[in-house]
Every structure is written in C-alpha cells, then in structure tokens.
Amino acid sequence: MSKERSQRRFYRADSVYDFAAIMDRGQAAMDENRWTFESAWEVANKVGGIYTVIRSKAYVSTEEMGDQYCLLGPYKEQCARTEVEEQEFPAGGPLQTAVNRMRDQGYQLHTGTWLVDGNPQVILFDIGSGAWKLDEYKQELWEKTGVGIPHLDIETNDAIILGYMAATFIAEFRKAAEECSGQQPRIVAHFHEWQAGVGLVALRTRRVDVATVFTTHATLLGRYLCAGSIDFYNNLSTFNVDEEAGKRQIYHRYCLERCATHLSHVFTTVSEITGYESEHLLKRKPDFITPNGLNVKKFSALHEFQNLHAISKEKIHEFVRGHFYGHYDFNLDKTLYFFIAGRYEFGNKGADIFIEALARLNHYLKAANSETTVVAFLIFPAKTNNFNVESLRGHAVTKSLRDTIHDIQSSIGKKLYEVCLSGRMPDANELLDKEDKVKLKRCIYGLQRHGLPPVTTHNIVDDWNDPVLNAVRRCNLFNTVHDRVKVIFHPEFLSSTNPLFGLDYEEFVRGCHLGVFPSYYEPWGYTPAECTVMGIPSVTTNLSGFGCFMQEHIADPQSYGIYIVDRRYIGLEQSVQQLAQFMYDFSRLNRRQRIIQRNRTERLSDLLDWRNLGIYYRQSRISALCKVYPELADVLDVSGSMNNFNFPRPISEPPSPSSSRPTTPRGSVHGSDDEDEVDEEKEVRDKS
C-alpha cells in the first residue's frame, strides 16, 4: 500500500482546526484583560444533557482561558458536596473582591473548583440567600420588560433569583476588575437555556457593559408541543406561539426565553434543526451553530477499543444466559445486541417506531430462516416496585450451575493428575463419579421453565398503561422460542452496582453492536455521539442535531456506521420500513464486516472532540466581544471553521452480505476483535 493511500485510509480529523494554537491557559486573555463567565442551571448540578455539555467542555475552556474563565450556577448541596472543592479565590484579585462585595450585601456564595477535567473555577449562588429580594427582582423585571411571573411557579422564581444574583455579581466584578487593572475589562457572559437567561435579561436592562451570548439547547415551547403528539415540523411556520404557550401555562417562561434570545449580542443553538425551530418559535435566526462535543479518549493502539467491546460483550452474554434460562436455544456467537436509551419520552425518543421496526425485523429474520438472533434492550427510567422475581431467579440458577461446574472441574483436575501420575490413561467413569452427576442433574432440572422469559427486568407500576409494554403487546414480541428478535425492557439507568448486569452505561454501550435512536425531537443527541466515540455504529434521524451534523460533515455516513432514518420528508410508515431495513441489513453483516465498520465509526471520534468543536464556542464569544468592544476586531482571530470539511467516502465499502464469501482468507481466533489484521484494500482486490 502506498504511503499516500495509507494516509487516506486512516485519515482522521485532527487537522480540521488547530485549536491547540490558542490553548495558552489564558495568557492572551490575561494580556488583553479579557474574561469569560458561563452560566447555566446545570453547573455542578446534574439534571440533564446540559450538565454533560458544560462538564465535558470545561477542559478545552480552561486550556484556552485558564483563570480568566469562571462558571456560575446554583448551589445544590447534594451535588456540590461531591463535585466541588470549595476554596477562596486569590486575595486582592477581582474575583475575590466581587465575591466579598456580594457577601457584604447579604448573599451567600460558594467558590472553588469543579472536580472535572480542567478543574474550572466555579461560583455557586445560594438561591435561598437571595429569596428576600424576589419581589424586588420581579418588580424590576415587570417594569423593564413587561413580563410578569406567577407567584406559585417555584422553578421560575428560582431562575429569577439566580439570574439577578449572577447579573449583580458580574456588575460588581466589572467594577473590581477595572479597579485592579486600571483599564477597562473586556467581559463576555455566556448563558445557557431560559433559566440562566434571566441573568442576561438583567444585565442588558441594567445596561452593564458586557458582551452577552445566549445558547438554547432546545426551545421550551418546542418540547411542550412535541410532547403533545403534534405534527411539529410540518406546522412549525403556522403556530401561534403566544396562544400555544398560553394554553400550556408557560407563557411567562416563553417570554423570558424570547427576551434572552433577542437581547443577546450573539444567539446560538446546538444544531441546524434547533436553529430552524428557533427561527419560527423564538423569531430569531441563530448567529452561530455550536455543536456539542465530548472528551475523546485516544487509545495508543487501534485495536484496544475492539478488545473493550469483546470484554463488555461477554458480560452482556452472562446476563442473557440468566435471563433466557430454560429458553436458551440460540447461539450467542450469532447474537447481536441492539439498544435504545434516554429519557422516557416514548414518542420523542423514537421508542414507538423502534418497537414497530423490531416486529418487522423479526418477520424478516424468520422469513429468511436466519440463524441470527437480535436481543433488543430498551433502557428508560420508569416507576417500578422492584426487580422481577423471574429475572433474579434466572441469574441465581445460572450462578448455581456455574459454581457447581467449577467445583466439579477442580475435582476432575485433581483426579486426572493422580491417574496420569500412575502412568495410565483415565477412564471417564473414574473422573465423573455418581455424586457429581447428581449435582449436575439437579442444576439442569432447576433450569426448567414453564413460562416465557420476561420482557421486563422489573415490576413496573401500572404496567397496563406503560407505553413500551403496550407497544410490545401490540407487536406480539413475547420472547417465544420462534422469535428471532428478543426484547428486554430495563426501566432504570445502568450502574456497576446493578445486580443483574453488573456494568455501567459506558461498558454496556461498548458491549453492544448497534445503538438505535430514531428520535422525533432531539435537538442534539448525546446517545449516538457516545456510541460513535466508542466505535459502536448507531441509527439516528435527520430530525436530530447529531444526524444533521453527520450528514453535513460526512460524505457517506452509512459506510461509517451512522444510519440516518428520514423522519422529516417521508411518512411514518416509510420511516418504520427504512429503520427495519437498516437493522436487517446490519444483522446480515458477518463478523469481519462489523469489525471493519466499527473501525470506521471510531475514526469519526475526532469529529466530535471538543478540541475541534470548541472553535464554534470561541467564534460566538469573539463575535459578541467585537460587537461591544469594536477595537478587539483587529486583535482577535475569528477565523477557523469546519463548515467546509467532509469526511470522504471510505476507500473500500463493506462487501454486501449477498456477495461476501462465507469464510475469510485466514481463520480468526474466536473472541478476538483485533482489527489491525483487516486490510480493507485487500478485501477489494480479493473481490475483484
């Protein structure tokens, strides 16, 4: 293979933008007296996806801005006690000076560093310490913007207190920074979502001289509309937004979000699809798209992530052996693991069409007399009473069998050793005595089961009204002997302390073969992104931010293990058929083809690394700074973009299942997923 072709084959996105050139730990920002504050309700407060965004982005933010960067959020003791190392800022510095002035006014502030990669500085505001000024803040908001807040809306009341406390702090900091340096500080304040956006509204109505950026990760009204089973995207331009927000009793929240959107110097969204939504619901087109990234762990050898897949897959095998005891009539070497996970939003997350497509896949596999079995996991947190007794019993009897066999193996080993020492070949009856046979028979009889394997691992509260279980009943996916698709609903998030699985979410994802996320409403979609950086192919849609991003930056997403279902331009039935066909095509790939595809999927991880995607946030901050401080336009570099970058089509495509040979040129060791031996170009030459 020539050097040029080799480089093309293993091409990565490392050189998309040299973000390392500006990672000076804040030296340039310090020289320019430039400061950045980032405010969100989920700073050191795990609630949803924004927590993951802020947390994972902290490393590149601190590498770029160092101590000139600080996060602002609410003080939630349960999270803060385990995630924040409390300590004071350097005495005499502007941060500590502003904190002291706030405390002198009666507010409680907790300062320190967040115990995540990058250890960013963090200031957490005690909401209760500002509650005495709530009526004053509401009065100011009403007089300046005409937005009234209902007294009983506790969540919005807390957002008002946090926003005005953050705005007061930033105003105090600006004065302190000017006093400390003797020159005007250049400050950019970045706010995420409507809860933190109140602070932006306060800064602008108080005319504090700072640049502001507002990012919406999903519009408030959009979430409510999609939850109501409305044809959202086809009617987006016709909604009467005021009426729709009023009917759902969120008009005041909607007004706050729209205020922050229009008062910000720069408005951003996390994806093109959310930008389109914001243009119609918030009446402003975003200035920048700021995609969400992840901290990508690089392995020193290409095959290491494949080895992790094999290790985690074996743990899932062990769960499946226990769950399907008595009906364990399928070959695990020919079993594929599909999964869907996330918040329990049955329609928005696409669980409805996933189950329907599984029924079609079951029919396809049975009609083709396929030996492949698909085990589909649905992981959504739901209300439960406890673990299903049948699930626990299955794991108990399989553990009993495993322990019994281990004891017998040890006994046979000793007997074999003694007999061989005597200089003769052992007889079978000498090795396995009557007592051992009785033990084995007891275990085998204990594996007998009269009913079918359970669909769910827990006893679900009001299971007659559960949308997943109702869809499973409607599609007749009951895990019978004849079904080639088995369904397991696990109604809680995974953790390493789980008595059934015994592995955390990341290990589980690594052990699966395909993640399926056919979402209808997904502003970004961290679940398929996490699959990608772990080298696991996934299904997404053109209504998710992740799917749109991949379509824009990859010439042929499917060849890289990113299957994009069309849920925007075709009907629901056609979308279900397309998803079922994607899963069927994947199930027909042989092991070698899946290995090649996982290799390609893992190559996309650089595309989702914050070291590349961080440039979008930098661009939005610099643009806001230049609007407020025009003199910085000649100093700050606003160049650098990935908009024109595309991952090229792979040099070789995976051979189609119908034309591929049943055997490989050289037999692979069972259980080994070392892909360095797979030469994609040799595959092409051998086929031609």
TrEMBL record:
Pathway annotation:
Glycan biosynthesis; glycogen biosynthesis
The main enzyme category here is transferase
List the catalysed reactions: [(1->4)-alpha-D-glucosyl](n) + UDP-alpha-D-glucose = [(1->4)-alpha-D-glucosyl](n+1) + UDP + H(+)
Provide GO CC annotations from the record: cytoplasm
Q: Where is this region: Disordered?
A: 647-688
Task: Identify a single GO molecular function assigned to this protein.
Answer: alpha-1,4-glucan glucosyltransferase (UDP-glucose donor) activity
The record's annotation in InterPro entries points to: Glycogen_synth
Top-rank taxon, per record: Eukaryota
Q: What is its EC number?
A: 2.4.1.11
Specify whether Nucleotidyltransferase is a keyword of the entry. no
Q: Can you tell me which residues the record assigns to a coiled coil? A: none
Query: Would the keyword Ribonucleoprotein be found if you checked this record's keyword annotation?
Result: no
Q: Name one GO biological process term.
A: glycogen biosynthetic process
Keywords for the protein's UniProt record, in alphabetical order: Glycogen biosynthesis, Glycosyltransferase, Phosphoprotein, Transferase
Composition bias type Low complexity, residue spans: 658-668
Q: What does this protein do?
A: Transfers the glycosyl residue from UDP-Glc to the non-reducing end of alpha-1,4-glucan.
- State the family named in the UniProt similarity comment for this chain: Belongs to the glycosyltransferase 3 family.
Q: What is this protein called?
A: Glycogen [starch] synthase
Task: Report the source organism.
Answer: Megalurothrips usitatus (bean blossom thrips)
What lineage is on file?
A: Eukaryota, Metazoa, Ecdysozoa, Arthropoda, Hexapoda
